[in-house]
């Protein structure tokens, strides 16, 4: 579990790159339909990754709360 917390910056960089990529593809999708199809596919992937990141955030909150409660008992 500590490995995840120590290397969470890698996940943040990947998500930042994904945000930039999706934004660029949406901008180009106004020009052609092939970019629009790619943008729709990436949109589905983006939603799933956001849900995974949200789940990881809640796991981190619960784990940190558990550690604080256990430490101060």
Structural features:
single chain, 73 residues, mainly alpha, elongated, transmembrane helix, transmembrane
What is the CA-atom radius of gyration, in angstroms? 17 Å
Number of helices: 3
Strand content: under 5%
The portion of residues assigned to helices is over 70%
Give the terminus-to-terminus CA distance: 22 Å
**Total number of domains:** 1
How does the helix and strand content classify structurally?
Answer: mainly alpha
Global mean pLDDT? 76
Q: Biggest β-sheet: count, sense, barrel? A: none
Taken in chain order, the helices and strands follow as HHH
Q: State the low-pLDDT regions, or none.
A: none
Spatial shape: elongated
What's the total number of strands?
0
Structural notes for this entry:
The chain is elongated. The chain has helices at 2-6, 8-28, 33-71. The protein has 3 helices and no strands. With 73 residues, the protein is mainly α. The two termini are 22 Å apart. The model has no long low-confidence stretch (mean pLDDT 76). Helices cover 89% and strands 0% of the residues. Helix 2 runs antiparallel to helix 3. The chain has one domain.
Layout of helices and strands:
Layout: H1 2-6, H2 8-28, H3 33-71
Helix pairs in contact: 2-3
Q: What's this, in brief?
A:
The chain has helices at residues 2-6, 8-28, 33-71.
